[in-house]
Amino acid sequence: MMSPQTVNAYYNPTTNEICFPAGILQYPFFDAKADDAFNYGAIGVVIGHEMTHGFDDQGRHYDKSGNMTDWWADGDAEKFNERAKVCADFFSNIEVLPGLKGNGEFTLGENLADHGGLMVSFNAFKKATAKKPLKTIHGLTPEQRFFIAYAGVWAANITDKEIRNRTKGDPHALGKWRVNAALPQIDAWYEAFGVKEGDKLFVPAKDRVKLW
């Protein structure tokens, strides 16, 4: 349970529910005065993130009634694990500080949820604006504003000590990597910003996470 003032959200597999306290429905997660590009990129991805938890490495072991059971076919589970390993390995290869790497297995569920949230929300955003496309604002296309809004959610100042603590004890990747490691897995991000081979965050298509 969370209080209404909590700036967070959660998915509960035993009740198959997602919860968004009032506290998260404010900037930088939500802005009633902003357009769909911003809100789908911010709170939309959070909503998709929590939905995806129902099908991540842990949530997938619960059925629609919240019972812990293996309801996936063997072949599906095998393919899921194979694709999820790409995500785990990618995050494990990130050097968060000199001599300290992330733990992709430990943060796998949250990283998969970020990936799913980005995919779900971006697709929903494109469908919602298909008949009435948004305009370019201050030189930024709607697609660019979507991803910038997502990045803004995880902007933070953090000490090296806190980086070490979170890397060892937080099942979420550091905010920096929820952006710089998550977005390079999304094909639409490359199209939005014209990212190409040779650019710093470029990941070859064959090496990107393709979970669903």
Can you give me a brief rundown of this structure?
The protein is mainly α and 212 residues long.
Structure description:
With about 210 residues, the chain is mainly α. The chain has a single domain (about 10-205), classed as Collagenase (Catalytic Domain) (3-Layer(aba) Sandwich). Helix content is about 45%, strand content about 5%. It has seven helices and four strands. It has helices at about 35-50, 75-90, 110-130, 140-155, 160-170, 175-180, 185-195, and strands spanning about 10, 15-20, 95, 100. The protein has a two-stranded antiparallel sheet with strand order 1-2. Strands 3-4 form a two-stranded antiparallel sheet. Strand 3 (about 95) and strand 4 form a beta hairpin. Helix 1 crosses helix 3 (about 110-130) and helix 1 crosses helix 4. The longest helix is centred in the middle third of the chain and has 21 residues, at about 110-130. The two termini are about 30 Å apart.
